[in-house]
Write a structure and sequence with these properties.
CATH class of the largest domain: Alpha Beta
Strand content: 15-25%
CATH architecture of the largest domain: 3-Layer(aba) Sandwich
Distance between the termini: 48 Å
CATH superfamily of the largest domain: 4-hydroxy-3-methylbut-2-enyl diphosphate reductase, catalytic domain
Length: 404
Amino acid sequence: MTQTYFRRGLGLKREVEPILAAEYHSGLVDRIRGDGFSHDWGDLTIRLARDFGFCYGVDRAVDYAYQTAHKFPDRRIYLVGEIIHNPHVNRRLSDSGITFLYPDETGTFDFSDIEPDDVVILPAFGVTMADFSQLREIGCILIDTTCGSVLNVWKRVDLYAKDGFTALIHGKYFHEETRATASQVNRHEGGRYIVVRDMAEAELIMAYVEGGADALSHGAFIEHFRAKSSPGFDPDRDLERIGVANQTTMLASESLAIAAAVGRSLERRWGTDAIDAHFRSFDTICSATQERQDAVIEMMNEPPDIMVVIGGYNSSNTNHLAHLCREYTTTYHISDASCIDPGTGAIRHKPELAADASEVTTGDWLPDGPVSIGLTAGASTPNNKIGETIARILETRDGRPDSA
């Protein structure tokens, strides 16, 4: 029987390694890392965070995508959404012949053109249970690159639903990963979820649970969370028992704070002796996300004069790295090296955390005289994009690295 589901690669890692190294490696990044994550070019110091760029899950997903193109050169290959949130990587995969499938405004994918002989790659974020079931019914070959950290969250959400707890997910309700995670409650009849974007939305839930004077009415609550909760969600019924989980790329400290606050709220509502029957929380924060955020905080013990954060503007973990950096020093979040113009001395960047924030241009961003530039990058940013950024910074200061 022909194998139609691959979860552990295609056995072609050695064959694609040279291609990946050629496309994503940076000798300049290796050089700075080898110098203790800091290197001086005259009066300009470049510092790298100790953890940055591709994480294991992203590296694995990209590796599997390249293996897929190598193994099935004569078949149509589709990718559900984007493999990761990095425009350069996605462009390279598109150039290799992989067709990207994008959802409509409701988040629905159209699989009507896919046939049994086709190959479909599932992204690192995973896909909803409904999408997975539909693809399995078609009978096409599936290459599943879902990150292990995401799978760990799914297991928790599955357990919550099995035991009758509503999954409260800290995340962005429209994000592919959160949609896939929320769908796990459908494994069990009556499974429920609700998504909160931040502490402010979590406080709406806590106020309703505790029946405070500032609590939303029943109707207003349902309307506010209509797009962010399971169909038929009833706060009177579905907020009695809550299990907290999170989109793995969210700000770790905020996820932990929300979980702790919700736990205290339920304890006030039901009493200390009954809390175990009403609240559950497990640490579902991705270790790579945590490590990159911790590395930024460590760097800020001696903040650089300027911080440059590299990664896609729609990358959640990159946005949160930039948000962290802004609390300590002047920060520019750029999508890649092309945002830096050595000729004019200007930089294009995303100025804030909001997903719909427009890119702005800042002139003369790199001051004269001694200056230290810190760099980090989201988990979906390859080393070559970091190296290109460093080279552009040096060119802006009329300095050039020996190797870029």
